[in-house]
Every structure is written in C-alpha cells, then in structure tokens.
Amino acid sequence: MGVIIVLDEDTINHIAAGEVVERAESVVKELVENAIDAGAKRIKIDLVTNKTTVTRVAVSDDGGGMNSEDALLAFHQHATSKISQSADLVAIKTLGFRGEAMASIAAVSKVTLTTKERGSERPEATRVIFHGGELIAHVAIGAPEGTSVIVEELFYNTPARKKFQKTIATELVHIYDIVERLALAHREISFVLFHQGKERFRTHGNGSYEDVIATVFGQSFVKGLVPVVGIYGIVKVAGFVTRPGCQMKSTSNRFYLSINHRQIISRALQWAVREGYGTLLPKGMYPAVFLDLEIDPRDVDVNVHPTKKEVRLSHERDVLIGVQEAVYCALHEMRIFASDPQFSETSLGSNDSVATTAITLPPYVLGEAFSHYKRLTTSQISATVALRKTDKQLRRTRYSETPETTEFVPEVLGQIADTYILARNEIGDLVVIDQHAAHERVMYDLLLSQNERKQSGQELIVPVQLKLTKKEAAAIPDLLSVLADAGYTLELFGKDVWMVRTVPVVLATLGDPAVVHEIIAQILDKYSSGGVESVLDRVLKMTACRTVVRGATPMTMEQMQRLICQLMATRSPYACPHGRPTTIVLTKERLATMFLRT
User: Fold this and answer.
1) Is residue 578 assigned to a domain?
2) Does residue 446 fall inside a structural domain?
3) Do both 323 and 366 map to the same domain?
C-alpha cells in the first residue's frame, strides 16, 4: 500500500474550516456577505456570549432566500450560486464565490438554517440543521421570505481551535470592526447588531456615507472630513479623508478601503493616500480614510486569500497613481484647513500644514502693538506657541533634573532642524541628541518608577469625557485593570461613554482625552496574547511617546539644557523605550578623520 491517500470529506471540511473560520468574527463576516450577495436590504446580527466565549451568532436577512433543494446543497463543499465555471473567476462581482463558507462553518459548530425563497409559490420555508458537518434535520417550516442562520457552540468538536480563541472583549472588537466595515461599504443596506439582546449598532440603509460614518465615529467627527470624488484614470474614487489640521492618529486602523464594495486591506493603497497628503500629513501620523474604489472587475483578482481580505490588481501602479491624485486634488482644490480661527495651541503648532490657519486678533491689540502683532508671521506665532507647549512638557518631567551620578552633563551648543540638540561633552566631543527620543526616555522612566511604587494616578479636577467607537468600548473591560496600573482610571458614564477620572501623576496637568483614546487605539491595533505585562508596557510606552517633546519642535537653549539634565538622570539615558538611540557621539578623532586631518 502506498503512502499517498485521498482525504475523506470530513477531514477536508475541517481543513477548509481552519482556513475560513478563524473565530466568531469569521462566521459573522461569511454570513453577512452571503446576505449581501442575496440582495438583502435589512440584515440583523444577534450575538450571545457567556464569560468566556461567543456562544451564539444569528444572522437574518430579507434577501432572495433559497428553495428546499438549494438549502441542502449550500452545505456541500464548493457549492455556490455565485459562479458556474472557471471563466467567471475573471470578473467576480459578488463577495462570495468559493462555496466554502457554509460547509466550513457547519464542520465546526451546530448550525440551523431557515430560508424561504422570495416570490415562491410554496407556502412553507425550509429548515436545515447540521451538527459538526452531520445532517440532523431537513424539514418544512413556517417562516418569512429571506434567510436566517444560527450558529452555536463554535469549535465544540475541535477543542484545540477553541483553546486559542481570545477573550470576549477581543472577539467583540473583531466583530464590531467587520460589521462597521461592511456597513461602510454597503450603505444602501440597513445593518442592526444586537449583543445580549441590546441594540449596539444600527445604520439606516439610506445610502448616505456621512450617516454611516457618524454612526461609527459620532456626528462631530464627520465635520472634520473632506469629500473625495472623481474619476482618475482607470479608477473611480468616492469617499472622505481627514481634513488637515484635524486630529490624526499614529496607527492606520481608521483606513476603510473597498474595491467594488469589497472591504480590503492594502498597504500599497495606504501609501498612495499618504502620498496624496504629501507635506500636509505630519510624519508618522495617519488620517482617517473612507474610500470606495470602482475598477473594472476584470482587473481585480479576488481569489488570492482564503478570507478574501486581499486582492491583486492587474494595473496596480495606475490605481495607486489615481488614488494619490484623487486625495491630492480633494485637499488642494478648496480651503480645507482647520476652521477654528482662535489663537490657540490646537490651531497653531509646529505642523507646516497648520501654518495657513486664519488668525483672529484679540480686541485689546491696538495702536503700535497692533502694528507689531500684524508684522509677526504665522510661523513666528507658531514657534512662540510651540515654545510654551515645550515648557509645559518639560515641567511634567522636572522630577528628574539632577543626575544621580557625578557624570558630566553635556553643554548645549544649539539645535538642528528643530529636532536634534548639539552639545559638547567634558572632553570636547560633539554629542547629537534626538530630543523626542530623549524626552521619551525621561517620561517612560518616570511612569515605570511610578508603576513600580504602585503609585495611583492623580485625580483630575474635571474628569475628561471619552466617547468611544463600538469596538473600542468592547475592548475597555479587558483593559481597565491595565490602564489603572498605568495611572488611568476610567468609569462608565453612558452608552460607549467613559469618564477619565485619573491620569499618571506626572501628567496631572494633562486632561487630554486624545491621549487615552490614542492608547486604546494603539492597543486595539496591536492586541496580542503577550499577557498583562506586555500590554501594560505598551500603555506606558504609548503614554510616554504621546506626551513629550516631538521632533520638528523649536527649543530655547535653557529648555535643551533642562532636557539633557533630565536625560542624564535616567537609568538608561542612551536609548529610548523602543530601543532607538537618544544620543550619538562624534569624537574629536572621528571629526578629524572626516576632515582628513589625520
């Protein structure tokens, strides 16, 4: 007997399930996509959870439904209504086409499907029940037109897969994310999501992009967006991007991109959007992006990933150029910078893109003072504001300005590119210091020391209100203890609204909800099974990075000297918390060699 055998159908289905069904979110995605392909106008998702897992996923729709024979065929491997021959793969217009979803889900759970074909003359509907891939029932029943699928006890017969599922909060984050993405790509459909019998998410299916964005991020968020519309080469682009001067984030988790109404993940398209911003985008920051791209289906290969999250483009370069041009034109064809005319740190900063913000002079600026004020350029005013902000940031870390050792503190000589401090050490070598990395090390050490002393956070005089998206709110229960260890105390205030009661002691003067919001977004973007310690460390590093002096920030000689003193008092002054160097030393000998003096 040979060593090669043909696998049985049960094993094949379990292997397919491993590729298609990773978690409860995969079930929701596949079932909702089937409902969309069936022409549904209303889709309801109902979730039930216990303390450890998602126990029930139910998706119902008012789509085309199926007859009795098709209801049974739907559970066969590679049975589909989307294509009939290989030639159809050249121009896929539906979300599903492989015929793997129902068979894969049924192989690792208990599934009940109830369906009635739209316009059918037969009065009864059909109910099909599968347990672990085995047919339990196939009967006639009374039910409305459309389809309802109930999936229970996911991975009950594959304990190894079940063991690797994440916490309830993490699973809900993934489910909210996929429902939000599908709703943004299919605005003509009404989506309703329930959890434990309570409505958590609803769109109206009126086709309005702004309405769906407002449902996910809030009405005020929409005001900070710029419309992007037009045909650029081979791609038709429609959607919105963040207005320059409005809040950006250091992660790309607010990129919502779809090609022919299929939500996809593409680093290349993210790059194209950022290129469209050019110098209007601060370094290392990402805008919020909601873009639909329409491309000839023959130029899009969707059959490259088991979960269909990625696509391959025949003319990718042309598409990237089109997207870049669309974003660039949207940002430059009209006045789209931050509209707040008041003179404040938020409307004026070191960011070049904000330098065009209008300035309203205070009424008390008169006479000669007015003439002098009028002569000041926007950059000069921005620099003044930046220096004041830097002073506040350095005061937060003033607790460590005296080195514990007798080590010589380098003497400041100047600053280059508003980013690097030039100094001289005790033997005359040139020391170049990255001001952001240096201050990040100082802040991180203070936060770490505070955590080691189990020092609680400093209570804010006025608590800060934090409005979260559905997926962020779902993650909060898992993060409360970690945030508390880092000095942040959050209390539930209302539906998806939390109050920040305390912040780390060294940030007591900082009541900025954006900091906590950014931390949560970062953790969501990189959430892993690394344990509480790794999450806590990420919170501390994120807090340090978000609250200190940044690059491209002018500093006075006195401010630079204070920062160097604080750096030299840390445990590890020569590297930031992320491992980047804070200082580079150019010795006299090295300089002599560079100038050919040896």
Assistant:
1) no
2) no
3) no
Q: Are residues 41 and 182 in the same domain?
A: yes
- Domain extent, residue 497, equals 458-503+511-546
Give the whole-angstrom CA distance, residue 556 versus residue 435.
Answer: 12
Residue for token pair 């401090």 = 421
Q: Report yes or no on 306 lying in a domain.
A: yes
Reduced to 3 states (helix: H, G, I; strand: E, B; else coil), residue 274 is helix
Domain count, the chain: 4
| Pick from 582, 296, 308: nearest CA to 445 | 582
Same domain, 196 and 101: yes
Q: Cβ contacts of residue 579 below 8 Å, gap of 6+?
A: none
Q: What is the pLDDT of residues 179-218, one digit of tens each?
A: 999 999 999 999 999 999 999 999 999 999 999 999 999 8
User: What pLDDT sits at residue 89?
Assistant: 54
What φ, ψ does residue 290 adopt, rounded to 5°?
-130, 95
Q: What are phi and psi of 398, to 5 degrees?
A: -70, -15
Question: CB–CB of 301/310 below 8 Å?
Answer: no
CA-based nearest residue to 148, from 48, 65, 36, 47: 65
252, 311: one domain = yes
pLDDT in tens, 2-35: 777 777 776 766 666 656 688 899 999 999 999 9
The whole-number pLDDT of residue 281 equals: 79
Q: What is the DSSP letter of 455?
A: P
Which three-class secondary structure string do you get for 262-301?
EEECCHHHHHHHHHHHHHHCCCCCECCEEEEEECCHHHEE
Can you list the residues of the chain whose pLDDT is less than 50?
88, 335-376, 378, 528-533
State the pairing for strand pair 146-152/54-61. Answer: antiparallel
Residues 197 and 236 in one domain: no
- How does strand 430-434 pair with strand 420-424? antiparallel
Cβ–Cβ < 8 Å for 293, 237: yes
Sign of CA dihedral 329, 277, 217, 524: positive
303 part of a folded domain: yes
- What secondary structure letter does DSSP report for 85? S
Q: What is the CATH number of the domain that holds 300?
A: 3.30.230.10
Q: Which of 125, 127, 116, 108 is nearest to 57 (CA)?
A: 108
Verify that 475 and 540 share a domain, yes or no: yes
Same-domain pairing of 15 and 103: yes
Q: 279: which DSSP letter?
A: G
> How many angstroms separate the CA atoms of 361 and 342, rounded?
8
Same domain assignment for residues 182 and 61: yes
Model confidence pTM above 0.70:
no
Closest to 218 in 3D by CA, of 146, 167, 288, 126 = 288
Q: What DSSP assignment string belongs to 535-589?
A: HHHHHHHHHHHHTSPPSS----HHHHHHHHHHHHTSS-TTB-TTS-BSEEEE-HH
Question: Residue 136 belongs to what H/E stretch?
Answer: strand 134-141
Q: Which of 31, 89, 534 is nearest to 312 (CA)?
A: 89
